[in-house]
Amino acid sequence: MVAAHRSCPGYVDEPFASLVAQYPGPEAYPLADFRVEWGPIFHRGRLDGSARVLVIGQDPATHEAISRRILVGEAGQRVQGLLARLGITSSYVMLNVYLYSVFGQAAGYRHVKDEGIVDYRHRWIDAVLLESEVTAVIALGTLAKRAFALWEDSSPERASRAADLHIAAVRHPTYAEGSAMASGQPLEDTTAAQLADWSAQLPALSAAVTPEVTPNPKPYGDTWAEQDLVAIPEQDLPPGTPEWWRAVDAWAVRQGADAQEKRATIKVTVPKGARAWPTL
Ligand code: URA
Which among 70, 92, 94, 146 is the best mutation to test ligand 1's pocket, defined by most ligand atoms within 8 Å of the CB? Predict the structure, then answer.
């Protein structure tokens, strides 16, 4: 008997079927600032009402462009590890501030309040938060925090729903790398600062979430430990996706001699550990 595989059923039921049918394109997302050519990437996790935690990320990167679900690469595995500490293994849903990958960080800040982007994002947040079992929102980074605040402040109904939620605005999962590059600080220092921030948020977050399995909200160390990253569950990705798409190895990188080639090219490589074929 072949083991049964699980997969993400996609956008079958309303309001998600209409949401994916009506996604905005370059009229809302300027081509100079977003990699619209790689298509919109909508979410990851449960859309069946069973989610208890909403995670808001920023924008999709290379692994997400290929797998067609958000927060799948290293950032996603760090988030999956954070959820595991809360005892959450499947009852979550994740959205990004942007449907398309941002081309240059400054563009991310420029467009967070754009009407066409905001209106569509609010429809998604409504769909996963209003009348749901979600008790906590984890906003990853400044833009996610701002996006959630815009939603909360946009109507009395939304403000009232937000008032019932625990909001954990944590540093973005790749804050350490970005901050080290921008500031010249050692990566070890920015990593320690990021992990201290996540550790500080854990007790209140854990208290606000009903776990599925025994939680383990112990603080992080000063560096990422192997068990801090958790593989993406099979049920989060579309049917038939290879197992190595969910693993910790980086398997998709932008490549090119200049910015144009790099924008146009994602190189996908089967990691060494997943090469099960016989060699002659
Ligand atoms: N990938 C995503 O989908 N979102 C992020 O915020 C980071 C990586």
Answer: 70
Please state the domain count of the chain: 1
How do residues 57-96 score in pLDDT, each as one tens digit? 999 999 999 999 999 999 999 999 999 999 999 999 999 9
Q: Does any domain span residue 21?
A: no
Residue with tokens 């025994």: 214
Cβ–ligand 1 contact at 71 (below 6 Å) = yes
Residue at 84 is within a domain: yes
- Structural domain including 107 reads 28-215+227-237
For the entire predicted model, the pTM comes to: 0.97
Is position 184 within any domain? yes
pLDDT in tens, 29-46: 999 999 999 999 999 999
Q: Provide the sign of the torsion angle of the four alpha carbons 201, 204, 209, 214, taken in this order.
A: positive
Distances 274 to 61, 68, 148, 236, 242 between C-alpha atoms, Å: 22, 20, 39, 20, 10
* Contact of 77 with 245, CB cutoff 8 Å: no
Q: Determine, yes or no, domain membership for 197.
A: yes
